[in-house]
Amino acid sequence: GCGLPDNCTNRDAAPASWRRDLIAKKKERKLAHANHAQRPLLIGICTGFIAQRGRYKPGAVTDMSPAGCPHVNGFKVDNWKQNLRVIYQCFVWTRKRKAKSCICHMCGAHLNRLHSCLSCVFFACFAKKHIHEHAKSKRHNLAIDLLYGGIYCFMCQDYIYDKDMEQIAKEEQRKAWKMQGMTRTHTQRHTHHVKAKYSTWEPTKRELELLRHNPKRRRITSNCTIGLRGLINLGNTCFMNCIVQALTHTPLLRDFFLSDRHKCEMQSNSCLVCEMSQLFQEFYSGHRSPHIPFRLLHLVWTHARHLAGYEQQDAHEFLIAALDVLHRHCKDDNGKKANNPNHCNCIIDQIFTGGLQSDVTCQVCHGVSTTIDPFWDISLDLPGSSTPFWPLSPGGDGSALNGESHATGATTLTDCLRRFTRPEHLGSSAKIKCSGCHSYQESTKQLTMKKLPIVACFHVKRFEHSAKLRRKITTYVSFPLELDMTPFMASSKESRMNGQYQQAVDPFNNDNKYSLFAVVNHQGTLESGHYTTFIRQHKDQWFKCDDAIITKASIQDVLDSEGYLLFYHKQFLEYE
Amino acid sequence: MSKDSQMRAAINQKLIETGERERLKELLRAKLVECGWKDQLKAHCKDVIKEKGLEHVTVEDLVTEVTPKGRALVPDSVKKELLHRIRAFLAQHATL
């Protein structure tokens, strides 16, 4: 591609100066490729230029601001600007399209691309040519499309683009959008706080210059391996390498760092976020030789003392420590220091932080005390551990939804999640002070998900460190490629409590659906072991990252692996 | 106007008044982007422009060429969901 925005279909969003630059650049390219046969330039062209027949002079670098057509001059008299503004405000950029008045004056239809005559009060459909009849009989040459605001000239027989009229259209649209942003919230299913209309990216003059001077373009094909890079083991550092592989392949995190969004305010050279940024640059540089993460290791030792030393550490501990340091070194969107755990809006919190709801129910008065705590990962107990793991009957909610079979009797991830979210009787030795009963009573406690993070990390507790023994539990846990977290949500639990046991699964609700994108595995024993990671590229390709060695893996390889840390990414992202 | 078109007009009026038409449009927009329909049509538009030549093609040309394809490419699941929503709406406003 030529690097120009491939997405400017909204002609209203592009200012005239950018169009000038765009055409100038295209002319340059065209002149440079003079040997090639004349081909129409298509990439990144606004529909605006399609209409400018007769105005487009190939080869000449002219001022290409939209000059409309000669027929608008008849319209541009008296108080035309104000009149036009009123039309845009009341009939075009309005959500509450006046049902009664916006119909065709000839046939009464609402749809059929309704247009309004610009010279008199007359609405008519375009599709049935009613507005054309009006234009002919009254000699009113101009009409406006009530849906998109385009101005049609019946003499030119096409939509025309006049600079002044475009300006008015855009201003009114921006005003209307701002107003609607305040009132939109209660009409949507989820609250939307629309502050400004989304407009597609347009290159600035400087960016166009840079693009011109750097003609080399990098294309991502479906089988390119950019983003894959091995990591040298610096002495039992596979616990760090495996997490780095998972993080560098977390899509949102990758996008954040590759678009240079970190503005560092730390004075010293010890910002872990900066180092992370560097790491992404290394991974996406295209170099195939393994990277040596000595700076990262040093920073980790500096900021997370408990992980220092050349002993093998726990990958899960490293993940939490790394997220913690990154979170501390980040600034949130408002530029405030990420000190307040409840109000941080840094990229780490945006991606990884979920809310875990804990409900403690008094067995006597049935009063419920609820707290919500943030979490970065969910640690799941396994059967065979010293904590009681109650085998659940096959089927029931959760497993049918996530397509797992119990034929082999293998424990599944959803089994673990069901156990995690089941009500637990706290026992007579752990009475809680009930605010309803004003005394200590026995109670049950239940954990559910209140808010799901964009990236959900499940930690399978394979390493047992109890007073009696230290061992690794190697029970195979089967985990799915796609996971639906709906049964484990706080809202689902409430529905169950209200008697809606067999909740109809809403196939249209995509909020809680996740896809697996990274799996960290541990081979060996507690004393000596090795970590590797499976990561996902290009939707369906998986690769195994074993320190410096990257090999292609099959989906089956991934699903057959033991599973220690499982990384899932939300399938559908919502605007907040 | 026939009884059919009278009914259609009444339903449309109700949809607009209650704001349901806007909601349905937003839903449809989101679904069509999600399933890649918008991108497919954009590509088709580019092909049409290539064919007709930049200097000669009009908006009408595009509309004529693209409308039938656009209609055909809407996935069944999207149609189903919207029908479901409209039916639910009609059930609510049974007095029509």
UniProtKB/TrEMBL annotation, chain A:
Domain of life: Eukaryota
SUPFAM superfamilies per the UniProt record, alphabetical: Cysteine proteinases, RING/U-box
A molecular-function term among this protein's GO annotations: zinc ion binding
Keyword Transmembrane helix: no
Record GO cellular component, one term: nucleus
Location of this chain's protein in the cell: Nucleus
GO biological process: protein deubiquitination; proteolysis
Domain (UBP-type) ranges: 67-179
Entry similarity comment: Belongs to the peptidase C19 family. UBP8 subfamily.
Name this protein carries in UniProt: Ubiquitin carboxyl-terminal hydrolase
Source organism (scientific name): Cyclopterus lumpus (Lumpsucker)
Automatic annotation (TrEMBL), chain B:
Self-association state and partner proteins as the record states: Component of the nuclear pore complex (NPC)-associated TREX-2 complex (transcription and export complex 2). Component of the SAGA transcription coactivator-HAT complex. Within the SAGA complex, participates to a subcomplex of SAGA called the DUB module (deubiquitination module). Component of the nuclear pore complex (NPC)-associated TREX-2 complex (transcription and export complex 2). Component of the SAGA transcription coactivator-HAT complex. Within the SAGA complex, participates in a subcomplex of SAGA called the DUB module (deubiquitination module).
Family: Belongs to the ENY2 family.
Keywords recorded for this protein, A-Z: Activator, Chromatin regulator, mRNA transport, Nucleus, Protein transport, Transcription, Transcription regulation, Translocation, Transport
GO cellular component terms given for this protein: DUBm complex; nuclear pore; nucleoplasm; SAGA complex; transcription export complex 2
Protein name: Transcription and mRNA export factor ENY2
Organism field: Cyclopterus lumpus
Protein's cellular compartments: Nucleus, Nucleoplasm
Protein role: Involved in mRNA export coupled transcription activation by association with both the TREX-2 and the SAGA complexes. The transcription regulatory histone acetylation (HAT) complex SAGA is a multiprotein complex that activates transcription by remodeling chromatin and mediating histone acetylation and deubiquitination. Within the SAGA complex, participates in a subcomplex that specifically deubiquitinates histones. The SAGA complex is recruited to specific gene promoters by activators, where it is required for transcription.
An example Gene Ontology molecular-function term: transcription coactivator activity
